[in-house]
């Protein structure tokens, strides 16, 4: 989603809306895929972890929750790092952390150790990658920003479609330890994406005149004046309530299907269905949000997406067979994709470009606790 990162890019530089921006978009697509799909795809290993350590669903759900909480709640740390070292070096280090966490997790002998490695270390690494990549994407695109955000957000369902069945194969062939080790190697590709984040160069004539202004911007890490905006307060409260349950279905749908007696591969296919629908929902919604008539009114479209997502969850709770779960995954994928494609554009429309970096960081900090307790709380009531 983003981070509390004061814009360290050169002022006076017009977003190219293309060119090398497409390479940045590709890197952001990969990073987004790993960041959001990884906490959900790891859920395919939950059954093995339950048998290995003799724990329950709620205990295993903490892995995904910690990953997401680190992704949401480490904004200030990412701010300091990006302001001090720049986006590209932070992303390279983040890629190493993400990989190292999963590799170490493959040697763990208790669930608490997995919390610290696969949860905290890998989650921090993904945060150090995803948040700067979002900053770079919004520097490279302006007029095409809704489409760019929609396309980059599509990385989440694409990777979810790939990582979920891949996790099943790795678990079957190498066990959860071997699967964690291989996934750790795959996360090294985050370093490659970080290398694509070439900073925009300011015009040579304006360097001397713009330098004092840039220094003043860097000093202001968080702009708390956004709380004076009633629209922002409503957005923050609504988003925090929404994420309390937003990630519960993708985390538990596989385990729920297994409890109903369906085969592991058939259960994992539900995530593939959800992700496949999500692949098309995000870019299509991004294109719709970019239309001249819709863009000024995208707040209403986002509100509909949130209501639609909640209604889908209520109806999905009544599913008692595989057909019902398939229908639920289809409609959840549509609503989930709409929310993912619109959240950045709506917040930008509410607070404006200058306060966007502070606003999104404060929203994420408010959401972090909800993300952390959501799936484990739902796991307490699993059957």
Explain what this protein looks like in three dimensions.
The structure is a single chain. The protein folds into two domains: 20-196, MFS general substrate transporter like domains (Growth Hormone, Chain: A); 224-381, Growth Hormone, Chain: A (Up-down Bundle). It is built from 16 helices and no strands. Helices cover 77% and strands 0% of the residues. By secondary structure, it is mainly alpha-helical. Residues 1-9, 206-211 and 213-219 have low confidence and may be disordered.
Q: What are the SSEs and their pairings?
A:
Layout: H1 21-41, H2 46-53, H3 57-73, H4 75-85, H5 87-105, H6 111-140, H7 145-153, H8 155-186, H9 189-195, H10 207-219, H11 230-246, H12 248-259, H13 264-289, H14 298-316, H15 322-351, H16 356-379
CATH architecture of the largest domain: Up-down Bundle
| Shape, per Cα inertia axes | globular
What is the helix content?
over 70%
Q: If you average the pLDDT, what whole number results?
A: 80
Strand content: under 5%
Topology, number of strands = 0
CATH superfamily of the largest domain: MFS general substrate transporter like domains
Reading off the top of the CATH hierarchy, the class of the largest domain is best stated as Mainly Alpha
Uncertain parts: 1-9, 206-211, 213-219
The CATH topology annotation of the largest domain reads as: Growth Hormone, Chain: A
The H-and-E topology, N to C, reads as HHHHHHHHHHHHHHHH
What's the story with the biggest beta sheet?
Answer: none
- Structural class, by secondary structure, is mainly alpha
Quickly count the helices.
16
Measured between the Cα atoms of the first and last residue, the distance is 32 Å
Radius of gyration: 20 Å
The domain count comes to 2
Keywords: Cell membrane, Membrane, Symport, Transmembrane, Transmembrane helix, Transport
Family: Belongs to the major facilitator superfamily. Monocarboxylate porter (TC 2.A.1.13) family.
Main location: membrane
Pfam family, one: MFS_1
């Amino acid at each position: 989603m983003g981070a509390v990162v004061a814009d360290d890019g050169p002022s006076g530089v017009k977003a190219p809306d293309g060119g090398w921006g497409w390479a940045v978009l590709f890197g952001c697509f990969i990073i987004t895929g790993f960041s959001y799909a990884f906490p959900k795809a790891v859920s395919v290993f939950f059954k093995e972890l339950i048998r290995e350590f003799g724990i329950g669903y709620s205990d295993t759900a903490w892995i995904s929750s910690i990953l997401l909480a680190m992704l949401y709640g480490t904004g200030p740390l990412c701010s300091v790092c990006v302001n001090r070292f720049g986006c590209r070096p932070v992303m390279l280090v983040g890629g190493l952390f993400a990989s190292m966490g999963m590799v170490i997790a493959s040697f763990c002998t208790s669930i608490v150790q997995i919390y610290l490695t696969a949860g905290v270390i890998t989650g921090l690494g993904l945060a150090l990658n995803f948040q700067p990549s979002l900053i770079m994407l919004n520097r490279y695109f302006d007029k095409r920003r809704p489409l760019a955000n929609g396309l980059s957000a599509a990385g989440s369902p694409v990777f979810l479609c790939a990582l979920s069945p891949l996790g099943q194969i790795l678990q079957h062939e190498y066990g959860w330890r071997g699967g964690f080790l291989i996934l750790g190697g795959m996360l090294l590709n985050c370093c490659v994406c970080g290398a694509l984040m070439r900073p925009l160069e300011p015009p040579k004539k304006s360097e001397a005149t713009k330098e004092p202004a840039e220094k003043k911007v860097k000093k202001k890490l968080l702009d708390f004046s956004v709380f004076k905006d009633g629209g922002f307060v409503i957005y923050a409260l609504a988003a925090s309530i929404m994420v309390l349950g937003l990630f519960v279905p993708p985390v538990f749908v596989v385990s729920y299907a297994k409890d109903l007696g369906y085969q592991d591969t058939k259960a994992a296919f539900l995530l593939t269905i959800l992700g496949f629908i999500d692949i098309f929902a995000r870019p299509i919604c991004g294109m719709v949000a970019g239309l001249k008539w819709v863009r000024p009114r995208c707040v209403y479209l986002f509100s509909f997406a949130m209501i639609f997502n909640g209604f889908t969850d209520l109806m999905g709770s009544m599913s008692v067979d595989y057909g019902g779960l398939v229908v639920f995954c289809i409609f959840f994928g549509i609503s989930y994709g709409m929310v993912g494609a619109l959240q950045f554009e709506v917040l930008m429309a509410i607070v404006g470009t200058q306060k966007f970096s502070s606003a999104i960081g404060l929203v994420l900090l408010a959401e972090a606790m909800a993300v952390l307790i959501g799936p484990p709380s739902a796991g307490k009531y699993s059957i």
